[in-house]
Backbone:
């Protein structure tokens, strides 16, 4: 598909937001200004005394909406998502198409770590065995039923649970998405430690940068 065709593509993009978090809603919507490739819709987050369960129920709610809309691929966005300078529409859409052809269930725009094993698929896309952070995920329809039928426990977290639910997950690198630190987290207390989110993303970035460097030296240089 030529890049000229990409200008006509609009990807269903579901933004999970608690109704009273207007600051986050305004922040994340601003990220999508001037990016018509994203068909943005706000999904009112499910409220639960345990933030991890609220997030999982919100993800399931989003998937049910996607099924009703007969979406083949969606993007699930949390309201602390921020685009990095590495985001490019054409490259992003190419990676969505190629990841689908390679059987991915999840393609993440950026992660805060959590992986032990990495396999470079291309210079800018890696298979990973595990990931942390769910602020920007491309989800393919083949994975919808698994999400809806999974037995999410009270101590589970969405990122760890999704990582265990499928082996078919990839991440873009350099990251096109990171999390904005609002000074608080609606999900986990650990993330309320100032600077912890930024540290996780930086550490993951450094590790994946090494893999990318070796890939360029050993594969692309051939």
Residues:
């Amino acid at each position: 598909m030529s890049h000229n065709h990409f200008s006509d593509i609009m990807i269903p993009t579901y933004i999970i937001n608690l109704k009273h978090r207007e600051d986050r809603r305004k922040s994340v919507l601003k990220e999508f200004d001037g990016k018509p490739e994203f068909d943005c819709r706000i999904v009112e987050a499910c409220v639960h005394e345990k933030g991890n369960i609220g997030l999982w129920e919100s993800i399931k709610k989003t998937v049910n909406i996607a099924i009703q809309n007969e979406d083949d691929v969606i993007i699930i966005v949390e309201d602390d998502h921020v685009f990095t300078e590495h985001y490019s529409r054409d490259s992003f859409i190419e990676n969505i198409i190629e990841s689908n052809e390679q059987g991915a269930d999840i393609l993440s725009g950026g992660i805060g770590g959590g992986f032990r094993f990495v396999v470079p698929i291309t210079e800018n896309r890696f298979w990973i065995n595990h990931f942390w952070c769910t602020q920007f995920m491309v989800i393919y329809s083949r994975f919808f039923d698994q999400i809806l039928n999974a037995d999410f426990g009270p101590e589970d977290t969405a990122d760890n649970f999704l990582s265990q639910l499928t082996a078919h997950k990839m991440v873009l690198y350099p990251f096109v998405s990171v999390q904005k630190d609002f000074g608080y987290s609606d999900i986990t207390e650990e993330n309320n430690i100032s600077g912890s989110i930024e540290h996780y993303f930086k550490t993951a970035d450094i590790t994946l940068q090494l893999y990318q460097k070796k890939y360029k030296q050993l594969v692309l240089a051939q």
Remarks:
- The mean pLDDT is 92.
- Residues 196-220 form the longest helix (25 residues).
- The first strand starts at residue 11 and ends at 17.
